[in-house]
Amino acid sequence: MNLPFLLEGETLYSWAGAVHMLNPSPSAVETSSRLYRAPHAALLHDFPSHLDQLKARHPDLPQPAVGLALRHTLLGYFLVHRSAQVCSGLLRSVTLGSESYLKFKLGIAASRVGGHHPLKGCQACFDEQLERHGRCYWRLVHQLPSVHACDTHDALLQVAWDATTPVHRRGWILPRSGLPRTWVSYPMVGETVFQRLRQLSAFSANWVRLAPSTFDESRLAQVYRAGLRERGLMTSGGNLRLAEIVKLLRHHFQGLEALAEYRWLSCMKEGQFGFPGSMLRTIPRSGHPLKHLLLIAVTFENWADFVCSYAASGELEVISESPRVPEQRISKTSQLRSQFADRVRGGEASISAAARFLGISVSTGVRWAKLGGFEYTPRPKVLDREKLVNVRRLLRRGLEKLQISAKLSVSVVSISRLLSSEPELAGAWRSSRHELARKANRARIVAAARVALPKTMTELRKTPGSGFAWLTRHDGEWLAANAQRLVSSDHGRRP
Fold first, then answer.
1. How many domains are there within the chain?
2. pLDDT 10s digits, 405-419
3. Which pTM was predicted?
């Protein structure tokens, strides 16, 4: 085969399309099989598969299999803030074969950002590529979900729109050749919005160059909190002013809702804290890279300030051939908890005195003392014994905090503190919540199948309110075992 050079910053999808153009064959499936020994691997425009086979058959490629995944596909963008264990498992899967439900495991499906990842490009870039290399190609950085402006030509990108679902394409869409497409321009935006997009594009280019597991999400949350504290968005007691943070985000990125990837921003309304509320916790939930970049952009003036805040000394590693195992770091909370334990255990101070000395609330000190097994004389609780028993009973049944609060006239804060101080109760509550969600989603998909009468699982997945996504992530074995019944003509019988 005549193989073109895999250019720096070029996607594997673009390179495979160039191979197909240089080596005419009856079908794209044959080209893919000759490259990857897999009939459809070369047609995946965003995520890789079977990369060990590609490297084994074409050893002259400039990167090892893992390097190809990280530098020439979107996968590296989603691994920068994931744990070393997750990164190693996913990279092993996509190099040795293919990974089922990859977008679900990366949290893309639940992020509301969208997982379509349309092909995007800059016409001025294509002109320069054609003159310099004799062919045009898709730049990886332009395909990132958080990039909508060209960093070279200060212009909005265009989308290569094709009505065919990517998994059903049997060919390549290339910038100036390949399958037919329609160039769609993003809506015109004002100068302020455009500068926000340019900043996000620049931050995204820095983000994607980093190694897997470079960032730890708990530490990222601490960095964001410190930056927001400097902006006066934290109370004297150390609590974030989430309503004001949401207002700041809406104001800072006002106008971005005109772009499809940012429409979900309009869902952040007063009293609904959305992703800031979940990603700024001491133990945060995992977030889409785009959401991390939004927090970085609204908290820091430039990328250098963010890096300095995250790593006071040393430089962040650039992308490597294998995932970096992050060093063990002791968080500020762990340090405070250790100092608290030393003071109380050594008899230097009481729980309340140690808490005041370290700048934490007394209730937090009591919770740490309870978790540490320290002997102390508890003060009378605001909740009477009977109410406390009822709260524990309802938590074990899996009721939501708001339901319990309304039912027993107990604040949500009190319920949260009770859960954090009793790990066994918290575990039982989460287990019950999960079981209730499983039963509800099973019933939901059965009901959806009875109404929609789908002929395939794809049709069932597209049925609104079917619960398919939740079941795929949390109850995949049951879904696979009942797939045939759900899409059969006999929907009257419950699986």
1. 4
2. 888 888 777 888 788
3. 0.65
